[in-house]
Design goal:
This protein has 297 residues and is α+β, with helices and mostly antiparallel strands. It is built from 4 helices and 16 strands. It has a 5-stranded mixed beta sheet, with no helix packed on it. A 4-stranded antiparallel beta sheet has the order 5-6-2-8, with no helix packed on it. The protein has a 4-stranded antiparallel beta sheet with strand order 10-16-12-13, with no helix packed on it. The longest helix has 19 residues. The radius of gyration is 27 Å and the shape is elongated.
């Protein structure tokens, strides 16, 4: 069974009339017919279908169903009469999309399935369970929230001579307002408002705000600065997304391979019960460390 709005993939082979594998073909070398059930009948379906060579005369064929719950029937014919496709037809029962992968997460089930070649839905439930775990684990390790949103915060001074302010949700996209008030009670109005480019600048990496004129603090430091900004990533960086995919994909394969010497895996069915720190691969750990939020300039 496949799932709504998740890419469906199948593998087929092409040989010529002598039985020799035929490689190097593209989607243009085939005619795809995709139909879906409507009531008791099969009707033509408009989803795009394509093929990709994976070597040795074997090919991926893939499409993304946009209707559920229903049956899709995909038929492939080679445009060259001397080529034979095997198998030439598949039937896929499409189920409604799972609500467990809503997010926001660092990656998607569909991207993980493509990266690891998980063509069917057998690993979908495991991937859905791991997506929030990996996202939470990465954010805790990096001491930050990666997803873009509006933020209002009071960054604490790093010293009595306040020159730098550290945003808790970098990178800063836009600064709505920055007030510096040394009075008690604090005053956040036009008299304490700073102007970007005149009174302060945002660092190139979007993590720091540097004051043009340092402020010397006496007495209470709490809430001297009030910062309103948009921070976080509107699009998750590619290396960070790939690291999340790697951790999830490897964890799923541990269960599929019945590697029960890893803790938190149930003997007998390969089901994964939870994510551990030692599930983070060395490559992913390097990426995570590069996104860990700094505490000092």
């Amino acid at each position: 069974m496949a799932q709504l709005n998740s890419e469906v993939r199948h593998v087929f082979s092409v040989v010529d009339i002598t039985g020799t594998p035929v490689s190097g073909l593209t989607g243009a070398d085939f005619t795809f017919t995709l139909r879906r059930r409507s009531g008791a009948s099969l009707i033509d379906s408009a989803e795009a279908v394509n093929a990709q060579s994976i070597g040795g005369g074997d090919y991926w064929v893939f499409y993304t169903p946009t209707a559920a719950a229903t049956l899709y029937v995909l038929t492939i014919a080679a445009n060259a009469a001397t080529n034979v496709v095997n198998p030439y037809q598949w039937q896929d029962d499409i189920s409604p999309a799972s609500t467990s992968s809503v997010g926001p997460f660092l990656t998607t089930r569909a991207a993980i399935k493509v990266a690891f070649g998980f063509a069917q839905t057998e690993h979908d439930a495991r991937i859905d369970a791991l997506l929030p775990q990996v996202t939470d684990l990465f954010q805790k390790r990096c001491n930050r929230n990666f997803f873009q949103s509006s933020v209002t915060e009071y960054p604490p001074p790093l010293s009595q001579c306040m020159r730098m302010l550290l945003a808790s949700k970098p990178p800063i996209s836009t600064v709505t307002s920055l007030h510096i008030s040394t009075a008690v009670p604090r005053v956040y109005d036009g008299t304490t408002l700073l102007i970007e480019g005149t009174d302060f600048i945002v660092s190139e990496d979007g993590q720091w705000i540097e004051l043009v004129t340092p402020r010397y603090l006496n007495g209470v430091w709490s809430k001297v600065a009030k910062l309103v900004y948009t921070g976080g990533y509107s699009v998750i960086p590619g290396d960070l997304e790939r690291a999340a995919q790697e951790v999830i994909g490897v964890k799923v394969l541990k269960g599929a391979g019945k590697m029960y010497h890893f803790l938190n895996e149930a003997v007998g069915d390969g089901q994964l019960q939870g994510l551990r720190w030692d599930d983070i691969t060395p490559n992913a750990l390097e990426v995570i460390d590069s996104y860990t939020l700094r505490s000092f300039p």
